[in-house]
Design a protein that fits this description.
Layout lengths: L4 E8 L4 E7 L5 H12 L6 E5 L2 E2 L15 E7 L4
Parallel strand pairs: 1-5
Antiparallel strand pairs: 1-2, 3-4, 3-5
């Protein structure tokens, strides 16, 4: 089966938003964290991704989370001391 590309939106509490294209069968966390970090000059390790109240785990994919095109992923930036 060919890879399918879908669109997700990353949205942070401070109003930053970013459109990302993802493959439906590839792990999301690292890809989305790196895209967001690059766009907004933050450390990927400081980011927590949440969908429907649940933290996105490293192995989660678009398909495993039953996401739909144009779904919104919440981005939390953890304070690093």
């Amino acid at each position: 089966m060919a890879h399918q590309s879908k669109v997700l939106w990353l949205l942070s509490i401070d109003g930053h938003h970013l459109q990302c294209h993802v493959n439906t069968d590839q792990p999301l966390a690292d890809h989305l964290k790196n895209k967001y970090a690059e766009a907004f000059d933050v450390s990927p390790s400081s980011l927590i991704l949440v969908f429907d109240g649940e933290k996105i785990q490293d192995q989660d994919t678009f398909d495993s989370l039953a996401l739909e095109d144009d779904d919104i992923i919440d981005v939390l930036v953890a304070a690093i001391h």
